[in-house]
Amino acid sequence: MNFSMQLLKFVIRPFVLKQSMRRMSDYIDTHNPTSSHYKQALEKLRKSAEMTVTLASELQRQFDTTQAATAARLARRNASRRHARITGVISPSQFKEIKRKQYKLSEEADQKRQRQRWKKVLVEIRKYG
């Protein structure tokens, strides 16, 4: 594997950074006897590539964190919330359940009142009917 292929592998796959750097420096030391100026330039390239990969991974991590926080904030903001006197802030499903229970209780109370009224009416009908 020649030097350019090793460099390409180093750039493409940052998760094998240390192994690639070690192989690249071994290759330069053993197979490529060139001037020290060339080796210094390659060492600078290696260091800058390492810093770039580190910076890119840190920026990606921060971006992911920011995206997650933004999504959570938008979800909280877009969720419909109502204020109830007794319980404070509740979700729509909780509010619907409370209203359903209140309606059921009020419906039962209305039926009870209607029965009492109809009892009086039925008594009058039996008397005069």
TrEMBL record:
It comes from Penicillium argentinense. It comes from the Eukaryota. This is Uncharacterized protein.
